[in-house]
Amino acid sequence: MPYYEHVVIARQDVSPQQAEALNETIKTLVEENGGHIAKIEYWGLRNLTYRVKKNRKGHYSLLALDAPAPAIKELERQLSINEDVIRYMTVRVEELDLELSPVLSRRDRPERSERNADATFAE
Predict the structure, then answer these.
(1) Is 72 part of a structural domain of the chain?
(2) Is residue 70 part of a domain?
(3) Which residues pair with 52 in a beta bridge?
């Protein structure tokens, strides 16, 4: 089966629990259609570059999928109907990346002030 990466942006007034429930809905939908979800990352509430359907922020989620094309088509159909979803994008990839995405790995880095405090300057 082909591999896909799928990003979903939910409305800003949706709670984080509802965004997680949306991810679970996507998971059951893909599994019912013969697919498998290898990874789900919830990126949290992030600013949008521009307003989308009167929203300035959105709850971002990244999903790594191993699913047949009809399952992806059904997933996109269901997401286009869902009022909580303001944007989604599916990209076909050669292999699944199961490591942390750069968005989450960047969040784990120490703050800039902490890094500068640890650095010693040689003169």
Answers:
(1) yes
(2) yes
(3) 55
**Ramachandran sector of residue 2 (left: φ over 0; alpha: ψ -120 to 50; beta: rest):** beta
What is d(CA 92, CA 8) in angstroms, rounded to the nearest whole number? 15
For the entire predicted model, the pTM comes to 0.78
Question: In order along the chain (123 residues), what is the average pLDDT of each group of 10 residues?
Answer: 92 92 93 92 90 90 92 93 93 84 70 59 51
- Give me 91's structure tokens: 């990209």
Structure-token pair, residue 3: 């591999």
Starting at the edge strand found earlier in the chain, the sheet holding 85-93 runs 36-52, 55-66, 3-10, 85-93
Q: Which amino acid is at 79?
A: L
Query: Which residue type sits at 59?
Result: H
**Beta strand extents in the chain (DSSP E only):** 3-10, 36-52, 55-66, 85-93
- 112 within a domain of the structure (yes/no): no
- Between 16-32 and 69-81, two packed helices, what is the crossing angle to 10 degrees? 140
